[in-house]
Amino acid sequence: MAITIEVRTESKLRVATSPHPYLLWQHARDLDGFPMLSSVDPYGDTIFNRQQVERVVEELATLSSGELSAAERSSLVELRGLCDETLLRPHRYLWFVGA
To answer: Which CATH number fits domain 4-97: 3.40.1760, 2.40.50, 3.20.20, 1.10.287?
Structure first.
């Protein structure tokens, strides 16, 4: 299953996208430890607003201290960059587009 990550505006204009699929969903299944990332729907769209993205950033910090493959670590770095892009301006959203 391929999950694409994008930053979009309120009018759904794509501002940025990850060139690689999201790979961290297997590590973030714990609802208590990763309430935001565990809610990513691999088959549908999941959209996070500004406050939710701030929580995603915290969860990524926790994930980064764990054991990840090189591809997963790259996915984490890309996701963190898209979170930063989302937080740059108001009315931006982080989209996980499921397969």
So the answer is: 3.40.1760
